[in-house]
Amino acid sequence: MKYEIINKNNRFYFLMDEKPCLLLGGEVHNSAASTALSMEKNIWPFVNNIGLNTLLVPVYWENIESIPGIFNFDLIEAQLQKAAENKIKLVFLWFGLWKNGLSTYVPPWIKTDTANYFRVVNQKQEQLNCISPFCEKAIEADCRALSSLCQFISQHPLKDQVCMMQIQNEVGCLETARDYSRKAQQIYGSTLPERIRELYPQANSWQELSDETFMAYAFSHALEKMALEAKKWLDIPLFTNAWLHKEGKSAGDYPSGGPTKNVLNVWEKNAPSLTAFAPDIYEENFREIIQDYQMIDQPLFIPETRKDLRYLSNCFYAFGKGALLYSPFGIEDLRKSTEAIIDEDQAFLKELGLDQAAFDPTGSLPYFTKCYQIIKELTPFLTDETIKIHSFKKEKDMTYQYQDENYRFLIKYLSKDKKEQLNTAGLFFQLENDYFFAGCNFALFHDAVDEELCSEILNFEEGYFEGKKWITERVLNGDERYTPYIGNMPKIIKFSLYTYPKKEQEVVHEYLADERNL
């Protein structure tokens, strides 16, 4: 099977054997894939019943190469077998040199040999728990391990279960804006590389650029080497993800040098073998973040995002904006109690500076399943280049306005910012004279563009799609048709409009001769 991403008329498509599709994903917790038993007990019995077609699963360097040069792929074998049995595609996440700004997944022989595999050093000359991106030996060792993994997958009869791969996870260095190790200092004092001079022609030295730019160059250079190794064996899209830049925070509070919005130009220039730089979105400003990551010529992947009830509806906005992958993190939590999850994740949430509510799955499961069911039904339209898709989402605003040739629409947001209610979000498109809206918690008002005309609903239905065939479940009329709306449970509605003159028209009647004599 061939997996590829194409750009057609400034719109990206993920193709499986030339057929466009969307990846309805879920990412398991960091340690969920550490044993086959853990996956068998906690993941596989659950995930194939909630609408996923793709599972994001970590692969740990420390697990596959605990002894230098000796590889054990038993766990990868188990993941491939189970994915095939459950008819789910895999996105493997390579937890190699860097994960969340740290080097905690490297093998013991890397961790304990700080002479050969030296670490990032802060301004106080203290070594940090992050292998330096200027350490060529470490990068070469990571490349060898990643290459061996990709070779194993490429020669496996179930290799087609793997549709993409993420290289590292939220790279960068924490607790310092840049690396002050001896090697880093040597490069910091050297001539600017040609690629950086092309981006910043006014600069003559690293000292004239930000520390974050320097680290972005180093990390992107390392990941480009890794991506090239992976591509020797696997012809699939490769990407890396980002712990986001936060306003008011300094580089080092979040991983300095990762693919954040302020250095995306460096990553795009220096790591061309990566298909995308993907934002992990846990923040409120979802629309702004998507816009930031669509400023460059790349597809939109969201490999990590919230799973709390209020934000499940974000998927409508994301796929409406062209996302190819959407994946709430810790997907197995949808079946657990809230208290257990919050207790497990307290340290993680504190480290990342995340809202505790982002990991609260209370009541999420039926709504999550419904959201993915609707996106699956709409996939033939969302991936049709002839159909214009529009999407909206409540943030600080309360309405969304849209106008076509004949009608104006005012979409009023109904959600009340309560944790037990989905936030307003949706998408819509038009097929001939019919409008299709999907999402939740909004009401539709309409009028005619022509000021001399009134608009009214001609037909209003609820239903679903089988392929591209609309199946009507209910035809609405009477007081259920005055104002089209969707409540808290997501659904699809279809309606058409018509117009009539505001003022009574003078009609000239022609009577038959015998009628005039009545």
TrEMBL record:
DUF5597 domain span:
368-481
The record's annotation in InterPro entries points to: DUF5597, GH
The molecule here is called DUF5597 domain-containing protein
Q: Which organism is it from?
A: Enterococcus faecium (Streptococcus faecium)
Q: Give the taxonomic lineage as stored in the record.
A: Bacteria, Bacillati, Bacillota, Bacilli, Lactobacillales
